TrEMBL record:
Protein name (Swiss-Prot/TrEMBL): Epoxyqueuosine reductase
Cell compartments where the protein resides: Cytoplasm
Note on cofactor: Binds 2 [4Fe-4S] clusters per monomer.
Organism domain of life: Bacteria
Originating species: Epilithonimonas bovis DSM 19482
Catalytic activity: epoxyqueuosine(34) in tRNA + AH2 = queuosine(34) in tRNA + A + H2O
Pathways involved: tRNA modification; tRNA-queuosine biosynthesis
Catalytic machinery residues: D131
Lineage of source species: Bacteria, Pseudomonadati, Bacteroidota, Flavobacteriia, Flavobacteriales
Record bears the keyword Zinc: no
Keyword vocabulary terms for this entry: 4Fe-4S, Cobalamin, Cobalt, Cytoplasm, Iron, Iron-sulfur, Metal-binding, Oxidoreductase, Queuosine biosynthesis, tRNA processing
Major place of residence: cytoplasm
Function: Catalyzes the conversion of epoxyqueuosine (oQ) to queuosine (Q), which is a hypermodified base found in the wobble positions of tRNA(Asp), tRNA(Asn), tRNA(His) and tRNA(Tyr).
Amino acid sequence: MNLQEKYSRLIKSKASAFGFQSCGISKADFLAEEAPRLEKWLRNGFHGKMGYMENHFDKRLDPRLLVEGARSVISLSYNYFPEKEQNPGNYKIAKYAYGEDYHDVIKEKLRHLVSELQDEVGEFGFRVFVDSAPVLEKAWARKSGIGWVGKNSNLITKQHGSFYFLAEIICDLDLSEDSPVTDHCGSCTRCIDACPTQAIVSDKIIDGSRCISYATIELKDQIPDSFKDKMEDWMFGCDICQNVCPWNRFSAPTLEEKFRPKPAIIDFTKQDWKEITQEIFSSVFKGSAVKRTKFAGLKRNLDFLSE
């Protein structure tokens, strides 16, 4: 076994020990396939008012511009599927936001993982990413063989479905590359058919400006009337295209306690949400990804749903 293979096996073993569901490796190179797709997506205005998506175009496509001397992109996934879901007939929050903020939880795991690696292989240059920089994480995860990109543009695996976070370690270690897996969506169109706002405009192409997640999280203005009566009670994010995906029948509850639902998220009624105050918001969503929308944003969403 050469050094590349030895280090690659070590990294995957460490990733598993830290609770990551999958780990794959690809060469840090220019994403030639993705460049025209990203350019067309932006040109079509599918990013809506997410102006930041237009920034750092080159960095999104070339990890060597993010980490000097980068040779490998290590892609990882971490399960967040909850054991319990919100009561039926309630205002809904996307499952990924049931527990503590994944940015903090996953990043801490990555830092400890890298620290242990460096104890064994010596110092190396790296950066860790958790949905927090111009990294096309689904493209790298697909390239590294973790899964395929489904028609809803989520990364899907046969073994686990799609309810997991993606993260990356971009480093200057020379590692053994993995190969992409094949697409197993076939002729299924359940995600496309189920989207109430027709945000999935074609296979793997999302018009972000039509997406319920965009309207309830990213959009800072008033929610457009075009979303009226189409939100299906989603007050933060949306899981519709994942809930209907047949591969998610294999989703198993996360073992990470920090991702387990906060009691209020499960137990609150519609009336409780309507009467939420800044104080209650701060208490319920302390250390949560929901704080991103702020109290005013959540109130805006609730007011729109109850009009």
